[in-house]
Amino acid sequence: VIKKQAYRIKAEEADDYILGFTCANDVTARDLQNHDGQWTRAKGFDTFCPLGPAIASKLDYDNLRITTRVNREVRQDSHTSQMVFKVPQLLEAITSVMTLLPGDVVLTGTPAGVGPLQPGDEVSVTIEGIGTLTNRVVADS
Q: What does the DSSP assignment read for the chain?
């Protein structure tokens, strides 16, 4: 979560622009993504990016465990140390082309493994030092 306006920052300055970290459930309608050939609509529905349960500041984010469960079954289990691009590199790259504003949230990707979800499924995302975000999948009525 960004705490102050960031444009063309260097990786070594990144921590000065970070308010803190939170969990996200980055939902994607894969059927629409495959149909449309891009992600805009597939990720753009109301309720498709719940965040929380808190923003943890002053967190050593280099090696946090990330676990995602669907109906209590572990589907993802990894660490931030496995990220292809580290947070400072991401912020440098993003702010080289756009301005990030206070309250903006940058999602850093996810390990493989969640797979398709069905109405009634319960999804829990846990990040060490932050907490657990739990949501139930509900069919659009």
A: -B-S-BSS--GGGGGGGB--EEEE-----HHHHHHHSSSHHHH-STTSS-EEEEEE-S--GGG-EEEEEETTEEEEEEEGGG-SS-HHHHHHHHHTTS-B-TT--------S------TT-EEEEEETTTEEEEEE-----
The values of phi and psi at residue 37, to 5°, are 80, 10
What is the tens place of the pLDDT at every residue in 6-60?
999 999 999 999 999 999 998 888 788 788 887 788 888 888 999 999 999 989 9
